[in-house]
Specification:
single chain, 334 residues, alpha+beta, five-stranded antiparallel sheet, 9 helices, 29% strand
Length: 334
């Protein structure tokens, strides 16, 4: 095709400069671009405005077709630069990242672009896995909807970020004890006695961390009120034990309560509630977040503690457990 055949890219009347720019935007080879550029300049320099207008009208339809074909060819080249094996690798990465909508899209694109590729068989396995995962998720949602909070699964151990947390030794009684340390005559500890008409609920909480200074979680007590949980109290967090009284006072460090020295530190957590709450439906809830940080106050006994913003909302619904932000340690009286 002649150089003139590239004219008429625009719908309206173009200047000579605009025609050159429009045509050059469709040419990608550098050598050809230079040749075409010089030829266009020489040709258009000899044309007046009326001749340029006539060129536009004469070749407008042909240029539109050629430009469309060029765009299609460029699109095809872009597709072929992303071969089937690389597409399958991307599908695997998206599946591992639980990006299931994107997995389905990439599988469809692989089939459309490379319908006969061997990778389609492996991609189909990912499609089946996604379907099974989503079917199980839907079934669980229906189960939770039908049974409400009674259907919540309970856990005793969980990993949150860099921490593995294990809960044990649930107690409900008048006293909450913690900070136990040995003495010459046996052992001593710190304890809280519940008010009249109330009781303490407490757990052992062992935290194992890969960090030398991790934040840690705490738990909360919620009463059941129809389709909602109502926050009643958040558990205090105290150390379970000390090597001796001097460590408890802070006169010397206790390496067993220091994450920079050991992997696992033992805590005792507790909360006081009126007795009537223990007779009604309730749920012990763990927010999957490490919200308490290590604090030091030399004038406190012990000087080391954990505190912070626990972040438990006033109410929760079953949907809060579906999205994985909260888990249940205990579901009672349902």
């Amino acid at each position: 095709m002649s150089i003139i055949g590239y004219q008429g890219v625009a719908e309206n009347k173009f200047s000579k400069k605009t025609i050159v720019e429009a045509i050059m935007s469709s040419v990608h080879n550098i050598a050809i671009k230079a040749f075409v550029s010089i030829s266009l300049i020489l040709m258009l320099a000899s044309c007046n405005d009326q001749q340029v207008s006539n060129i536009e009208k004469k070749y407008q339809d042909s240029i539109a077709v050629l430009k469309n074909q060029l765009e299609q060819a460029n699109a095809q080249i872009k597709v072929l630069r992303f071969p089937a094996d690389q597409r399958l690798n991307q599908i695997a990465e998206l599946f591992n990242a639980q990006e299931y909508d994107k997995v389905r899209k990439e599988i469809k694109d692989l089939r459309d672009v490379f319908p006969n590729a061997k990778e389609n068989a492996e991609a189909e396995k990912y499609s089946e896995k996604v379907a099974a995962i989503e079917a199980a998720k839907k079934a669980e949602e229906e189960r939770l909807k039908a049974l409400g909070f009674k259907a919540l699964s309970t856990i005793q151990s969980i990993t949150i970020g860099e921490n593995k947390i294990v809960f044990s030794n649930l107690k409900i009684g008048l006293k909450y004890t913690h900070d136990v340390y040995p003495t010459y005559s046996g052992s001593e500890w710190r304890e809280h006695t519940a008010d009249k008409g109330s009781s303490f609920i407490s757990y052992n909480m062992d935290v194992t961390s890969t960090s030398k200074d991790p934040n840690i979680p705490t738990i909360a007590f919620y009463s059941v009120n129809g389709e909602q949980l109502i926050h009643q109290n958040t558990f205090w967090v105290n150390f379970a034990r000390w090597s001796d009284y001097g460590c408890y006072l802070g006169n010397e460090p206790d390496l067993k309560n220091d994450f920079s020295k050991v992997s696992t530190v033992k805590f005792r957590v507790g909360a006081q509630l009126e007795d009537n709450y223990f007779k009604k439906p309730y749920v012990i809830v763990l927010k999957k977040a490490n919200t308490l940080s290590r604090q030091y106050d030399r004038f406190e006994n012990p000087p080391v503690s954990y505190s912070g913003s626990e972040g438990y909302p006033a109410t929760l619904t079953i949907d809060d457990f579906k999205n994985g932000k909260y888990v249940a340690l205990k579901v009672a009286n349902l």
